[in-house]
Amino acid sequence: MTSSRLLVGTRKGLFTLERDGLNWQVSRQQFKGASVSYAADDHRNGAAWACLDHGHWGAKLHRSFDGGERWEEIPAPKYPEGAEITPGTPATLRYLWSMAVGGDDQPGTIYFGTEPGGLFRSDDYGDNFTLVEGLWDHPSRLTKWFGGGRDYAGIHSIIVDPRNSNRMLVAVSCAGVFQTTDGGETWQPKNHGMRAEFLPNPDDEVGQDPHLMVACPANPDALWQQNHCGIFRSTDGAEHWKQVSQPGGPAYFGFPVAVDEQNPDVAWVVPAASDEVRTAIDGALLVCRTDDGGQTWTQLRNGLPQQHCYDVVFRHALDISGDTLVFGTTTGNLFVSDDRGESWGCVGNYFPPIYSVRFGRFNSN
């Protein structure tokens, strides 16, 4: 079933859109003027979360227990006394980059990924947070983690295995993919097969730069990542990665990736021109889809601007629900497709720059 609600985090507030037939309409604008780095709801109970970046005033966290009608600010995760990013540099929260809820057997558990590279966990739904020290204390962090687009390393992807809540994967920019199978006590890098052309050793175990990592809900061992150096796929739970970029492009460089909820071989990316350029390729916006696990890619352009377009799509600004896809761009354009990307319609052209787009996941039925 396709969701009928969208949470759109932008540079100037959170927009909630509701679907009425074929049309999407803005039903609420909240946190006006504030940068909303990420917003999503909890499929378990419908509560909603909004991560705000107030710049000089720092990162703020808000939650709602009525689906986003009313919000309360709660204390954001805080690094413990004595924690250091590097020797002599105290660790303080700079950015709330991602969130994920715990398993269905963990009704009070929620995780937040932050810059400078800390994963925080709450088991009482945000009343208290603890730093996941097993990851923070990983021996590679002090020497091989570094910023990718931001000053310090950041955790932008968190996957909790729905079959086993003690198994989690995170993706760190820049460090790579790490896995725990014991609830966060210990972590192992899982980057075999990935490449980072900017490193002296491109195959280094730590120092990779995934831009986003997702898992197929029906088969959580099928993982996709849009990477700084291509598109990568794993079919064995991140034990091995294979580059599945399109030879000669355009499906190569970009930030977001989405995978079909039932078929692990089907995925979508929104390509961008190279690392140095970071705009739509040749002034034309397109989406690429693979139906065969990355062996081939189809270009999807119908309904998307094909001239004088310079948009790019951030890592959290693409989502899928059923056959419906949605993405938002850095110039405030919001596009929706109801036929798996074959054709696109524009919901609006004048949103603020869009940082995240997430379908409402809670089903009250």
Give a brief outline of the structure.
The protein has 365 residues and is an all-beta fold. 2% of the residues lie in helices and 42% in strands.
Structural class: mainly beta
Mean pLDDT: 96
Q: Report the biggest beta sheet as strand number plus sense, adding barrel if it closes.
A: 4 strands, antiparallel
Specify the helix fraction band. under 10%
**Helix segment tally:** 2
Lateral arrangement of strands in the main beta sheet:
3-2-1-30
Radius of gyration, whole Å: 19 Å
Q: How much strand?
A: 35-45%
**Multimeric state of these chains?**
single chain
Termini separation comes to 12 Å
Per the principal axes of the C-alpha atoms, what is the gross shape? globular
Total strands: 30
In the predicted model, the low-confidence regions spanning at least 5 consecutive residues are: none
Describe this entry's structure for a reader.
The longest helix is centred in the middle third of the chain and has 4 residues, at 133-136. The strands form eight sheets. Strands 3-2-1-30 form a four-stranded antiparallel sheet, with no helix packed on it. A four-stranded antiparallel sheet has the order 4-5-6-7, with no helix packed on it. Strands 10-11-12-13 form a four-stranded antiparallel sheet. 2% of the residues lie in helices and 42% in strands. The chain is built from two helices and 30 strands. The protein is mainly β. The relative contact order is 0.12. The protein is globular and about 55 Å long.
